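lol so apparently i was supposed to do this last week
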Amino acid sequence: MKTQSIEVAALTEPQAEVELARLAAEIKAHDERYYQQDKPAVPDAEYDALRLRNAEIEARFPQLRRPDSPSLRVGAAPAEAFEKAPHGQPMLSLDNAFDEQDVADFCARIRRFLGLDQAEPLVLTAEPKIDGVSANLRYEKGRLVRGATRGDGLVGENVTANLLTISDIPEFLAGDRLPDVIEVRGEVYMSHADFAVLNENQLAAGKPAFMNPRNAAAGSLRQLDSGITAARPLRFFAYAWGEAQSVPADTQMDVIQAFSGWGLTINPLMRRCADVAELLAAYSEFTALRPTLDYDIDGVVYKVDRLDYQQRLGTVSRAPRWAIAHKFPAEQAQTVLEDIDIQVGRTGALTPVAKLRPVTVGGVVVSNATLHNEDEIARKDVRIGDTVVVQRAGDVIPQIVRVLADQRPETAVPFQFPQLCPACGSHAERETNKSTGKTDVVRRCSGGLICPAQAVERLKHFVSRDAFDIDGLGSKQVEAFYVLGLVQRPSDIFTLAARDKGSLTPLSKREGWGTQSANNLFAAIAARQQIELPRFIYALGIRYVGQMTARLLAKHFGTAVKFVSAMQQLAAEVGQEEQPVHETLLAIDGIGPAVLGALEIFFSEPHNREEISELLKLVEVGEFIQSGQQSTISGKTIVFTGKLEKVTRNEAKAKAEALGAKVSSAVSAKTDLVVAGPGAGSKLKKAQELDVETIDEDGWLDLIGG
Ligand code: IVH
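anyway here it is w/ 2-(butylsulfanyl)adenosine bound
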């Protein structure tokens, strides 16, 4: 058996050593592809799983940690290397059209928006959508002063030196009607021929090949050494503009033509179309031309030609109303499904991943595809050994479209989705919505407190502000401690100080820590070894058990011991005729079937019960004191809306509940009081309509006595 298929818990020490070496090499290779070549080879989830496995093995065999271990490079993304370059105007993206109807709808929408009747012409341009990376070229007085990547659309990276190595991008523009300031936009891409040569050279130099021309272009443009970019033949088509002191014409087509006159390269296929039929004809023509072009295109872009129309149409959520990308259909290929891997996400969701015999789909080698969930596997009847049709569109994760049933080997059996979490062995359950009777499509690991795949997120929740709220132990520290194997489950937090005393590398000797800070942390942890019951329940991170519900449970059960024993009984009641705890819980105002189901699942898992009893040995949970039963607001239903300025919303809510009020999120006739801060809108209006008493934050503070 290969070491990589052995569960962490079952690895022998020599196997673990081999496995750590393998993981270090594999993760390093992925990091390089991701950070230096802009071409991740695997989905994020798969990459995370590798790092996690590495961390788990190191936690079991700390002595085997390698000097080049990936865990010593947590978050080792390269420092920001390029200067930031804010764009004069945002760089927009495009909406997509996937079929002829979408295109017709697009034109009809524009006509409606502009109030054009059928008799009036609506001219649009059609041009190929280049599959590269966009760039913004800022020319001032005809000179390229700054060239930038798109970045987040508002601020990009300054890659001027690299852009100047591209022969399609002149340093100086000259010609008619050239404005003093203009941002020219377009696509940087690599031709197929140049891509092939580049990859040959890469391989000859013992370096990995690029996945496709787009990734090669992106990676080449973001080289810190522009000498490297210069050796990578990039090209550029200009197709749009941003900030401009003036534009040289009043149509899209003529402005782009003017760009050409100034010395920029434009796409020769761009043309005007008089109506939807002509747009679709252009689409068909470009589709037919596509295999003969020396660059990748992934659709056709249509733009309203008249700039006054563009102006009137404006933009919605970062895409112009006057343009659309008509995408080519996703590319497909056939291959064999070799295995189905089950990955456990950070929230405990079990996700099936198809392991494919590598196949090229649209120029990219694909070896993994998503299978979504177990129903999807059953619906498509996907079996290991099947020949399947794989589809890939743009940068999305490849999908399995269907199975070729006639090519199924006789030995192929229906896939059995695991019922136990592959990461920790806890039960994996599909929730049933008790009111609708519907079963969730996602199967989740129920071992929340101990499952290594979920551990980090759970630990972060455990120490978060509304839970244990330990000073100096935030998300960052939790992550670091997890990777170092110091804290793997909540109870480890409270044994940290004791273990540290006898340890070879005490915390105070670790990077970023000193005697003072380590002692402060231990003191902060010790201070939290006494905690209120609602916080304790909330900290467990049970699905649907938020602060409110935790408080309701605390109030009902009073002590941790009573709560836990009731929950164990609840779990034992599942499937029984008599369900007293069940009924008690449902009788609590504010607790419904979803919470009940979540509690059942959580407390049915022995791993969770064990962890809770560990915790209760280390932490003293206070009895819940019913306060404020006689307060002015006890029994009242209160809604908070708008901004509170003196206390947080959570604080106000907690206080109201502590005083015996019920806090609701919606205003209705049953609402007794609305506390409205600045910015309150519809809820305040509704309260006024319903004649519900309304006060502001100061009024609220007065009411509860400060
Ligand atoms: S126009 C205001 N034209 O597609 C509209 N974009 O999906 C700006 N692209 O970010 C874009 N070829 O990187 C336009 N002929 C073309 C294009 C094109 C490729 C890219 C561009 C844009 C993305 C939007």
